[in-house]
Amino acid sequence: MTPDLFTDRILRIPPGAIVVTIGSAGSGKTTWAKRQFPNDQIISLDECRRMVAGGESEHDVTHEAFEILLMALEGRARRRITTLVDGHFVAPDMRRHVLEVARACGRPAVAVCFRVPAELAQFRSRSGNRMLSPKLLRRQVQQVDDFVLTHQDEGWDQVIFFGDTDVDLLPAVRYTLPEPMPHPGPFDVIGDVHGCAGELDRLLDTLGWLPPEADGTRRHPHGRTAVFVGDYADRGPSSAGVFRRVMAMHAAGTALGVPGNHCAKLVRYLSGRPTTVTHGLHTTLDELEREGDVFKTDVRYFLENLPQVLVLAGGKLVIFHAALQRDRVGSQDQATWAQTTYGVVRGTDENGYPIRDTNWTGSWPVGEDEPLAIYGHTPVRSPMRMSNTIDIDGGCVFGGYLAAYRWPEKTMVYEPAAKIWYESAKMGWRGVPTGD
User: Fold this and answer.
1) DSSP summary character for residue 322
2) How confident is the model over 324-369, as pLDDT tens digits?
3) Sign of CA dihedral 165, 168, 171, 175
4) Dihedrals φ, ψ of 211, to 5°?
5) Among 98, 33, 49, 51, which residue's Cα sits nearest to residue 71?
6) How far is 188 from 427, CA to CA, in rounded Å?
7) What global pTM score does this model have?
8) What is the pLDDT of residues 166-177, one digit of tens each?
9) CA 418 centroid distance within chain
10) What residue ranges define each of the domains in the chain, with the CATH number in brackets?
């Protein structure tokens, strides 16, 4: 039986999947795995042997090494961490144990099978740093052929077959994304507003949005949707005004949004939980008190029900507030919530301020097929573009600018801050970017 070989340029796997390589020595599986997966996503059976006996070729400790591998795999699977399990895995019993972990933890299991002739496998292994006897290698090749015949009975969610293609020509790995929301665009993605209601309305004017209706809704004559990256309130002159505008547009279907860290803090306070009233929260609370209990309840309900991540435009556009690993899109756990809300801190700068990154790609290669991720949270002098992401927080409340990224036009529109509403030592610029 000859399996259908995978010939596409991109191989997509579900986030949080367990991916298992199946192949003989010299089949190219480890070379492909190391090129397509970052080191922190790979559990190698050889490495587990080294941990037990001090050397990767100590095959007499394979049983103990496999127990370590399964223990690590279970811990990662419970945390929904994408994991590539690298080894021959030509023995059905070993594959069965891996599948049991995947089923117990509710994770998708993907088998990537490398089917190459024994002669080619022998040639490749001879040129490496280890050699198997021809007899043992032929046995492994036969076990791979057996898997071809029985794989449909084992229970894999996805099985991929590679032939004797040069490893350099094998596909790149990308994550699948959850089913996108039914919003094809076009979009105006707007950065952190922080109570700058006047700047928000002037930006919408520039973007061609119609004047407010009686209930505060603004609509675009060409059906555009505004998308907010979070942090609607605090520090600025009219947080209540921003909420009134955004909530009316959201209810009318002309706006979408995600929450930010200031939103989480406000919800915590409005829910009666202990909250430190800092970083401008007191200005928002004073305004909400003047608006009354009904408005406060509406604000809390609005923020509590915003999704942490938006997947739009058929999966071509992803919106979050602060940071997100690609393989966490669609996850609902606390680690994902913490990333999207507070970001990923990589250290501190010379002034003691946190250094953050989006953690969107890690060490994975990025291609044109990747979705564009847009976020805010960290003010930048001009929209920061890297690894298919854009930070559009212009620090408007600190005297910078409010930015809108127009999609699919891929253009930026800016509204300068009317004044410095809140002082920040981190701000080294004022007004809109120059030369962008």
Assistant:
1) S
2) 877 777 777 788 888 899 887 766 666 665 666 655 654 444 555 6
3) positive
4) -60, 160
5) 98
6) 25
7) 0.75
8) 888 888 888 777
9) 34
10) 10-175 (3.40.50.300), 187-416 (3.60.21.10)
